[in-house]
C-alpha cells in the first residue's frame, strides 16, 4: 500500500506557481498579496490537508478535536432557498469534513405550520440520529424556539434570542451598518436614506437599531425616524418601488444604505427609471452577502457568511468535547470594500 506523500509549503507553491515565502505569508494572514492569491493558497491548502503549526496550536487551544476523534454526523436545518443558506452550509460542511465529520441538510417544507407538525417532521427525517444541530438564520422565531429546546448540542448561526443558553456565531450586521455610516459620513453625506424591512426578522431589527444609533452618534438624529425611510415589506413590489422612487426623486437624500441583501439591485433599477446616476447623483452602500455579478463595483461591508459557518462547526465540536464550558456568542466583523458607488460631496 503506497504512503500518501507529505504536503509541504513547497507542494502548494509549486502547484500555484508561487514562492514559498508568498504561500507562508498567505497562510499566516500577512499582507503583501491580492485577496485572490490569498484565497487560492488557503483553498489549496485545505484541499491537500495542509495545516500550519499555528493552526494546529489554535485548534488545540480551543479544545477542538482533530479528525482522529470518533466521526460524527450533524444536521443543519434550513428554511427557504437563499444563496446565503448555501454559503452557510458550505462553510460548516468544509470545516466538519476537514475534522473528519459529516453534515446533512434538513430542508423544512414551507407547508409546516405548528409545533406538532414540526416535531413529527423532524422525527421522520432522522434528527434523533444526529450528533448535533445547526440552526441557520431566517428560521421563523416560533420554530427556532422549539428547536432550541431540543436535548442535543446546538449552534445557532444567527444572533441569539435574549436569555437563551446556546452557542452562536453571526456575521456582525450591526457593525457593518456602523461601518457603512462612517464611510458615508467621511465622504460628506448627511442625508442618508435607509432601505430595508425593520421588523420581520431579528437581524432586520438589529440593522435598523444600528442605523439609528449610528445616526445619533454622528450627530444626525433626524435620520432616526423610520417614517422618513423605506422600511416596510416589499411583498407588494409595485407599491414598494413607488415609495422608493418617491424618496429617491425627492432631492432630499444624497446617499442610500440598502440594508437587506438583494435591495441594492432594486435601487439601481429605480435610479435608472428616474435618470439618476450612481454615484454622481446618489451614493450607494449595499449589504450583499457576496459581490453581485452585475454590480461588482458596489461599495459594501464584507459580510463573513461562509466564515460564520466554519466557526459554527468549530463551536459545535468544542461544545461536544467540552460540555461544561461557558456558552459563546461570536460576532465576525469584516472590513469595508470601498467599491465605486460612494462619491465624496464637496463641503
Question: Layout of SSEs?
Answer:
Layout: H1 9-16, H2 20-27, H3 35-48, H4 53-61, E1 73-78, H5 83-98, E2 102-107, H6 115-124, E3 133-135, H7 141-148, E4 154-156, E5 167-171, H8 173-186, E6 192-195, H9 202-217, H10 237-249, E7 255-258, H11 263-273, E8 283-286, E9 300-301, H12 305-321, E10 329-332, E11 336-337
Helix pairs in contact: 1-2, 5-12, 8-9, 10-11
The gist of it:
The chain has 347 residues and is an alpha/beta fold. It is built from 12 helices and 11 strands.
Following the backbone from N to C, one meets helices and strands in this order, namely HHHHEHEHEHEEHEHHEHEEHEE
According to CATH, the homologous superfamily of the largest domain is Response regulator
Tell me, briefly, the overall form.
globular
Structural class of the helices, strands and pairings? alpha/beta
- Please state the second-level CATH architecture of the largest domain: 3-Layer(aba) Sandwich
Under CATH, the topology of the largest domain can be stated as Rossmann fold
Helix content: 40-55%
Number of helices: 12
Number of domains: 3
- The residue ranges in which pLDDT falls below 50 over 5 or more consecutive positions are none
DSSP strand content: 5-15%
Number of strands: 11
Radius of gyration: 22 Å
**For the largest beta sheet, what order do the strands appear in spatially?**
2-1-3-4-5-10
The biggest sheet, with number of strands, parallel, antiparallel or mixed sense and barrel status, is:
6 strands, parallel
Terminus-to-terminus distance: 73 Å
Q: Indicate the CATH class of the largest domain.
A: Alpha Beta
Average pLDDT rating: 86
